[in-house]
Amino acid sequence: MFVFLISDNDLDDHTEYIIDDLIRGLKGCSAGSELFLYVDRQTDTPYLRHFVLLEFGQVRTRMIKAYQEQYSTSPSVFKDILKTMITESSSERYGLIYWSHGSGWLPANEAPEVFKALTKAIGVDGPYSMGVLDMADILSFTKAPYFLLFDACFMGSVEVVYALRNSADYIIASPAEMLGIGFPYHSMLPELIKGTRESLAASISAYMDFCYTDVYEEGMVSGIASLIDCNEMDGLAEIFKILVSNDHDSIDRKSIQTFDCYSPNLYFDLGNYAVVLSTDTILYFAFERQLERTIVRKVNTPSVFTQTGSRDSILLIRTYSGLSTYIPGTYLDGSYYKNEWYRYCHEAE
Predict the structure, then answer these.
(1) To bridge 270 with a disulfide, which of 228, 236, 297, 323 should be the other Cys (CB 3.0-4.6 Å)?
(2) Beta bridge partner(s), residue 96
(3) Greatest extent of the chain over all pairs of C-alpha atoms, in Å
(4) Are 151 and 182 in contact (CB under 8 A)?
(5) For residues 184 and 210, is the Cβ–Cβ distance under 8 A?
């Protein structure tokens, strides 16, 4: 397991919990399992450590490298650390966990020239984020992971997964906000590290079991995520391209499930959007069947917590197809029209 934990931001208070939970999860794996952990937090300079599980539950750890202060969301930094992990690992395959802030397909913030991406943002280090397109390029031209898990908000969008469809076999992500404690690695890591389709699906079920435990002891139950088969994304794009209309003015956005309380909303349920778009029952059923092939497993609590409005809110989940999407009609349209998913689905025949 390769883990990037980027908490050089307002998530720093969660760092120790996440590290402890990862090690707790490692102890539930088979002997010989490896964990590579890159950490960049507010209170310390970045470092890369290696953990390996020995017999009888003992964990051996060593420091691979201590870094000077750097922007860990820089594509060049991400590429360098990933290559070091691959070189140091004895395994033929790996899974990649990226823990930080996330904004799905939304434009990355203004940044120095080294940050090339114009759209799609993952991670926050100081004022900077890395573009998902940069991540896709790096993963496509290195040893790609078997699966990619985003422990970050809003990364379970069709736009993000389509951009990364050639970068991993599977993606685990949430279309909404993740709670600060993230995924429960103590119960998910033993399944994730097995590296099979069935074990990845089992990890999603373990996540949902955890969501019902009221970990904050505030009576709040909140969680939503899915396991996506990247090999099915081209098929999903092909059928959605036939289904979608260029005329969005007649779409009743208020009737479609959202995963945020922004004004206007930015993250809508893809399947619910397809229902509203569809005027051909046979075509819609073809899309629905393809979506079922794409989403291996999806889980959600009846409602989820959100901080996207003017105040903290609980958002009712009426329907969940497994992926979110943006619907044109807001101030972000200019950026969205450059998006790879949008361009493919709306390009002229």
Answers:
(1) 323
(2) 2, 148
(3) 63
(4) yes
(5) yes
